[in-house]
Every structure is written in C-alpha cells, then in structure tokens.
Amino acid sequence: MKPLLCLCLFLAMLPRSARADHITGGELYYTLMGTPGGNYQYNITVKVFMRCNSGRQFNNPAVISIFDKGNRNRIQDIEVRLARTTTLQLNDPNKCITDPPLVCYEVGFYEFTATLPPTPNGYIVASQFVFRIGGIRNLIPFYSNVGTTYMGEIPGTEVPGAPANSSARFTGNDLVAVCANNAFTYSFAATDADGDELRYAFCDAYQGGTFRMGAAEPVSTPPFQSVPYGNGFTGSAPLGDKVRIDSRTGLITGIAPSEGIYVVTVCVSEIRNGKVIATQRKDLQIFIASCTIAAATLEPEYNLCRDSTRLVVSNQSNSPLIRSYNWELQDRSGRQLAGSSEQGFAYDFRDTGLFNLKLVINRNGECADSNTSLVRVYPGFKPAFDFEGLCNGKPTRFRDGSTTVYGRINQWQWDFDDGIATSSDEQYNRPNTEYQYRSAGSRQVVMQVSNSNGCRDTATRLLAIIDKPALNLGFRDTTICISDGVRLQANGSGALRWSPLVEMVNPEAPDPEVRPTITRTYYADLDDNGCRNRDSVRIMVEREVQLVAMADTTICSGDSLRLRIASNALRYQWQAAPGLEQTDVSNPIARPVANSIYQLTASIGNCQATASITINTLPYPISNAGADTTICFGTEAFLQGSTNGQNFSWSNTQSLSNPQNLQSTARPAGTTAYILTATNNSGCPKPSRDTVIVTVRPLIRAFAGRDTSVVLGQSLQLQAAGGELYQWSPATALSATDIANPIARFNNNYGGGIRYQVKVYTPEGCADSASILVKIFATGPQVFVPTAFSPNQDGLNDLLRPIAVGISRVERFSVFNRWGQLLYNAPDGRGWDGTVGGQPQVAGVYVWMVQATDFQGRKMVQKGTATLIR
C-alpha cells in the first residue's frame, strides 16, 4: 500500500492546471511602440481562453519564445507573469433559441515588451499550453491530452518598411450561441492599425505544450505540428463542408455540424502593397449545442446560372418555435409571381432576370422574423480553365475556358494555393495569367469568375507541381549478346534527346536502336520548357552465355526441390517434364514422380548454352496413426498405429500408457494431436508422419440460471446452458422437462418457492447438473433498491443497483445528486459504483429513479434515496 499512497500524494501535489484539460483557445498580437536605436520595440500580448468553473488555473508564469522566421533559430525564451484575468459570459441569450447553451470563458492576459533588431525574414513569437479541453469532436476519436500553440509573425525587411508593423487584432464577439444543424454566423473579424488589407482563411490548429510538473516550458522549435483532425474534418474545413469563411470579412457562416466541441483556427494575412507581410492566428474551441434558433435564414443570393432554372429552397432554421411560414417571390417591378405557406418553397422560372425571394416566419407573433434574398436566373454559365507547365521555379500558365449564354464574363480571381495573397495583384485578376510556384507539391487552384449579370461561380483543378518533368524509361539496365541490338525506350512531355551518339541508329528518335560492342551507358535528357530531367540505361554486352548446372541428386518420392543453375543469361527454357512448375525461369521447383531428367536452354539474344540435371526418387516409409476420436474429460482413448518402417515413435508420450508400442492408451488433459513418426534404415532417409487427434470434450459445467424471484400468477422462462441435451426435475409447473428453456407457470406459491435441478448431457455421454431457486411472492411487480451502499471494493455492497421482482426488464436506472445533476444513467440497471468519470463521489444521500416494464407490458417508474457510505 505504501507505493500507492505515495503516488496518490504525488498526484495531489501537482498543480491543478497540469492535471486536466481546460484550455479553450487563444491568440497572440502585438503593437509597435517605437524604434529605439534602429531596433523595433513591440508590446506583445498572449490571450488565453479557459472554460469557466473548471477549477483550474492559468500557468503563472508562461514562457513566450521568439524564433528567427527564416532559419528557425531560437532568439530568446521569456517567462511572463499573468497580467490580468477577466470573465466573458453570455448572460442574456436570445429568447428565440431553444435550450440555449452556457457560453462562458475565463480569459488570461500575458503582456511583455520585446526589442528586436530588423532581420530579412522577421520573427515567430509563440507560447504553448497544456491541455486543450477534452472530447474535441473534429479530432481523431478518443484523442486526448493534446496541447496548443498560439503564435504570431513579425515581418522582416524583405518588404521595405514591413517591420514597422502592429499586428492585426481579432475583434469579433466570442459570446455566440451556436446550435447544431442550424444556420449561424460567427465573426472572426480583425482590425489593423496600419491599414493593411486583411485576408481570412481557416487553417490548422497546432499542438504543443509539455507536461512537466505543471512548470512553464520553452516552446518547441517550429514548424509546429497540426492537431490530429479526424471524422472527415480538416484544418481548412473544421466545421464541415457546409460552413465557410468570408476571406474579406472573417465572417463564418453556414449550417453548424452536430452537437459537440470543435476546434476552429482562423488565419488573417496582412497584405501590404500586394505582399503578405505577416499572418496572425486565433484558435478557439467552439461548443455547438443541441439547441435551435427561430429565424428566417436564407442564402444572400441564389444563383440559377449553371443549368437548372428550378429554385428549391427551405428555411435553414429548424426551430420548433417556428409556427408559420410565408414565402413571396416577386420580379424586380414588385409583381408577385408565387407564394407559399409551406416549410419549403419551389418554383420553375420561365424567363431570365433578377427576382426577390422573401420569407416571413411567425408573422405578427413571438419570434417573428423575415429575410429577403436575391435570385439570379441566367442559365448557361459554366466556369472552366486549363493550364500547362508544372515545373517548380518555372511559370505555370493558366487560361480561362469559361462560357456564358447571357451577359459577358468580366471578372476573374485566382487562388493558386501557395500561401501568397493574389487578391490585390491585377496580373492575377484576368482571364489568362501565369504563376511561378515556390516549391513542389500538390496544389488546388481555384478560379472564381463572374459575368456582367452578377453570376458568380468557381472552377477547381488539382495540380501536381514537380521539381522535374516525369521521364519514364521502358527498362533500366539490360544485357545483350555482342551480335545483337536493342531499342532504347523513353517517354515524357517535352523535348527528348539521347547521348552519347555512339553505335546508335537514328539518334533523333525517342526510341533509337543501339548496337554497342562494349558495355555502355546511354543518357536520356528531357526538356519541358526549361524544366529538365535526366535518366540513364546501362547496356551490358556479353560475348557468350555462361551456364553451370547443379549436380545430379536423389530425393524422396513426392518431395520437391529447386533446380539451381548459375548463368548470365536473360532467358531460360526448360524442356517440359513431369512435375516441373515453371519452364521459363532460371531456378524452377520440380516435383518428380519418378526418376527424371530436366534439360535447359539458356540464351542472351542469339547466344545460347544448354545443360541437364538428373533427379532420382526413393519412396517414404508408411505411417498410419489411426482414426481421430472424441472422449469425455478425464477418460481414456485407445491409439492403434501401424507402419512398415524399422523405427517409430509417438509424440506427447507423457500422456501415453505405453509409448514404445504402436498400440497404447492415451489419457490427455485436453484435445491433443499424437504424431506417429516412422523411419527406414534403407531407402528414403527422411521420416514419414501421420497424426491422430484425440478431441477431449471440455468439462461439462451445467448452468440452470441465477436464483430469481417471481410473483404469483407470473410465468418464468428457464434457460439452462452447458450441454446439448437437458433433463429438468421436478416437473412441477414446467411446460417440458427435456429442453433447455421450459416455461414455468406458477399458480401456487409452493411454500414460497421451488428449487429445480437440471442435468446436462453431450452426445458422447458427458454429463453434469445444476440447480436454480425460484422464490414466489404473493405481491405485485416491484423493484427493490438498497437504502445504502459502500463502494470500497471489498466485494460486499459495492454497487447501488435495482432488484426486480415480477419485472420483465429494467429499462433505465438513473442516479442524481442533491442538486439534480445526473450522475449515472444506464439502460440495463447494472448498478452505480459511486464514481463519475472515474472520480469517486462524496458520501451522502443520492436520489435514484427506475423505469421498468412488468411481464404484462405495463410501464412503471419508482423513485427513492440511497446513502453512499465511505
């Protein structure tokens, strides 16, 4: 007990912040304070969110680390004390939200001043904490104890004047109630004191933080590792494919996923003079509750610009507080075309143009709301583009292939998926453009295109940017005979040339023929618009075929062996012979049924050599262990073997009465295989073996069921187990006595109960017996629950559980504390062990509730209290 006591004391002394998951988000931002001595002085703030009432504490101090962004060298680690804390709580949720969630954060601020010299690449500032709040829905299932990293970037001098920068600072309201499967908006908007253009995107949340006695630890060296996304979510789609972020405003909109906690990280890029100078991040675990919002929620626009002219739309809110719907569709002159009071709306347009769609819910009632959306009907708008040139460091050319039936295409916006902002660069906002990638890899290029009628759509293509063009050779190296030639083979996109032009026919062809007289290497050079690749083929020249075959040998009949030869040949052909598995390989496997001769021809082009191998066969001795048998546990089996060999032996001799004889008595403890091995002093020198399996039926363990209780007039189905044949006694009140599951019907209490005995048999005659006591009560169906229990793991009264009398099934057994909080809820009444989430609950009185169904199908609910004793 002493080691366990020491461990408990050790854990109790750990800081509470180090023993739980409580961090719910954070960000890092800074403000330029001045430029003393040519350096740059920044006031840096790390803002950390923690769930309310967690009982945990913020790290104090926290470590904030600064790295050179270019070479990742560590500049310094600073221990920063917690400056202040505040609480954010949504105290007045919208009355039109059903079951509004509790939105509450404790926020801690760490502030310090850093003076840094200008560098070309700038700096990364970061801090790490353990642990994030547990049970995050968009991570790999059951992944826990994942830390977090909050970071920001200070720009370098690559962009003139960029270090004189105050970071973008997120200003969006964090007190937002989000309901599962309902439309929502969540602002991650930011402001920038320098007036830089801001561009927003979802990005990966980072892991981080080291558990070491709760003490502050320096930040690990970047790059930082992404959290393990799972369940179909990614950093760029942390809430699924129905939720988007506006790249210009930072507003997140869409239909929320199912209930749970989701980690969402938004990156905001600061763009100055068309260049991204720094990227800041905000990381937040958003709780999506099982609530609904009564609202008229529509898309801002519905574009029927592709093929269909049929509008099908429904309210994106599914709140039960919505009692009426009123849809109105009008043309631009205000003339009403259609209306509906259904939950959804559909309409087939017969003309093109702009139309207004309006939805009113709960008109003139509580939670009334309305919304208007614009409908564009200009079918025949199809975005598309082509590209060429996929070499890293060389321009990739993009060409718009979009078409439109109405209006003209007049706007383009390209996203080349390379981490560089292009929204402000005019060269990238035209139909045909080019872009030079900085590194190889997969890129998802998106072109957003619009026409003069306001239709807007996107085309997406997946590109594989490469360091060099693909060059495929028909073969790598080969061997030829001196009198032969061979045709080189290569293919790829671009100009292909072979070298050296020695002993080569038609060297300008992609597949020239060569006839080298000595071993020679030929090089293939591929040039795709300046993107180059080289590969080679080595042609080895032989003057003759060298062939050495294995010596003739003898094997036992039915055995196999591999025919072995040593040769420099390229092709092999064995003359077809009995038992030869392959005839065109150098070392085939042979299974001769009699004495055999195997002949081989080996060749390199027109050069050939021949050889032969003779295999003689000898028969195995005969070995017969007898037929398999089955016995009952603890009984004997008789083995009867036979052989024509001069010597024999049995395996597993410890369970044989006479292992020196072919006939012996076996008494195995379990199913056993006995192997009879026989050998001859002449003929085939290898032993032959045969196996007899003695199957031992397991010890019969009859089971008649657990003792139970019934009420007078109730039927009870017995259920025995352990064998295949059954016999019950006495026959009193039983529907049958020779089946496993007879029904007992009690119209008499038989002195308060009956004890039934069942004998269990197997077809081999193995047997056992068991009994069950059935108590018979003259009361109605009832559930009994103890008034106290002591979960001290002594095997006595450790669980609080219901005891059912006259009950068909216990459907639910629930336990609550004195504040009405549900602590235990099980469908089968297994019983509560006095813990919640593995944590023991305090001694005291708890309330229980049982929901059950009796044998008549009647539902019943019982409540009471029980005392937990420690």
TrEMBL record:
InterPro entries: Ig-like_fold (IPR013783), PKD_dom (IPR000601), PKD_dom_sf (IPR035986), T9SS_type_B (IPR026341). Gene3D superfamilies: Immunoglobulins (2.60.40.10). The keyword Signal applies. SUPFAM superfamilies: PKD domain. Residues 412-460 form the PKD domain. It holds the Pfam family CHU_C. PROSITE patterns: PKD. Residues 1-20 form the signal peptide. This is Gliding motility-associated C-terminal domain-containing protein. It comes from Cnuella takakiae.
